[in-house]
Amino acid sequence: MLVTAAGYVTNHVSRTGDHDAVLAFWVLLISLLAYRLGKEEQPDKRIIYSIGFILSAAVLTKGVAAFFPLPFIFLWLAYKRKVLPILQNKHTWIAAFLCLTLASSYYVYSEISSPGFLNTLWFQEIGGRYTGENHGHNHSWYFYFIQLLSNDFTPWIYVLPLLAIKKIRIQINKYDDLVYYLLFAGFSILIILSVSSTKCEWYSAPVFPLFALACGIILTATANIIAHLFRTQTPFRLFAIKWILVAIVFCIPYKNTIKRISFPQKEWVENQYGEWLRKLAPGQTISILTDRQPNYCVMYYVAALNAKNKSEFSIKNPAYKIKLNELIICSDASEKFSKHFHYKEVDRYKQLELIRIESRIQH
Predict the structure, then answer these.
(1) Sheet containing 285-288: order of strands
(2) Among 57, 72, 265, 330, which has the minimal tally of Cβ within 10 Å of its Cβ?
């Protein structure tokens, strides 16, 4: 389900290998460990330290977004009446201290090495994005819920009404209340995101592994019920029937995902850099000038292809350090170079151009 979730396999998330994809699995791990912690008779120090370590890793991955699971974890533990025993456990405070020390050390080091980092952090992660609209992503409070129903997790979100069927609820009882916990966790994060003034499409990435696991359990229970309707007790036949059902259900979503990734309706120029650089002959010396700096997607493509093909791709930064006869890949070359250089277009790929700088324009 996760592989076919349009909200997860998309730009800024797993399609481009962004931090949000990694954060999603840190959140999943923290959520499952917290679920287990709530089921234990006594707080397990191994789970407590694991949560602390993973939470610090999540903070180093995506900053304050790592703390989004904490409100629903608190409510879950309160429901299970485990808050007080956990707070009275010394390992909780040791794990919290280690987590905060590890996470905060990065921010302290960054502020020392790059003065003003914390001010930028406040604008980019807290004040500027959560309490004020940033980057032109101003949407209604219900934006993420509409995306969930219309695109990001279709058709799997429509598996949830199957919970109304008593036989399916009986089937998932062997997982205890895990399904309901996962759904509660996912919708809690969506509510927190919906309060934010800045609503970027990819911010909801952490909810998709949670929803995929919950809906997967529901769909498995449904497949078991349908398989037993064929009145066969042969293990091989039951196995074959279940896999046929799975193939039928997933066939169209997989096909749509491949089509959406291979032939996107809206091309993202960062992806085009990677596509074109892979097609160029190894060993070429070419500079790349991107529209924004730093461009981490292009940086990844350049580093990976230089290591694999022994090419000499480099990102031009700052832009004015351009030499005569230099080969440059860029988008909208006319806007970048027409006022300062005479250049010749050597090749073109979608929205990108490969140009050769011939001479400077004297002003």
Answers:
(1) 312-315, 285-288, 327-331, 352-360, 341-349
(2) 265
Which pLDDT tens digit goes with each residue over 19-45?
A: 899 999 999 999 999 999 999 989 999
Confidence at residue 216, expressed as pLDDT on a 0 to 100 scale: 92
**DSSP secondary structure letter of residue 42:** S
Q: What is the pLDDT of residue 323?
A: 83
Return the beta strands (E) in 231-340 as ranges: 285-288, 312-315, 327-331
pTM of the model: 0.81
Looking at residue 133, its pLDDT comes to 58
Distances (CA, A) of 217 to 39, 228, 247: 19, 17, 16
Which residues have CB under 8 Å from 284's CB, separation 6+?
A: 311, 312, 313, 327
- Cα 185 → chain centroid: 17
Dihedrals φ, ψ of 46, to 5°?
A: -65, -40
How much is the pLDDT for 97?
96
Cβ neighbour number for residue 229 with a 10 Å cutoff: 8
Which pLDDT does position 232 carry in this prediction? 67
Which two tokens mark 101?
């020390």
Beta-sheet strands, E only, within 247-351 = 285-288, 312-315, 327-331, 341-349
Q: Identify which of 344, 325, 324, 319 has the alpha carbon closest to the alpha carbon of residue 334.
A: 344
Low-confidence ranges of the chain (pLDDT < 70): 124-137, 231-233, 265-267, 317-320, 363
Give, rounded to a whole angstrom, the gap between the first and last alpha carbons of the chain. Answer: 59
Residue indicated by tokens 């700096």: 293
From the CB of residue 270, how many other CB atoms can be counted at a distance below 10 Å?
19
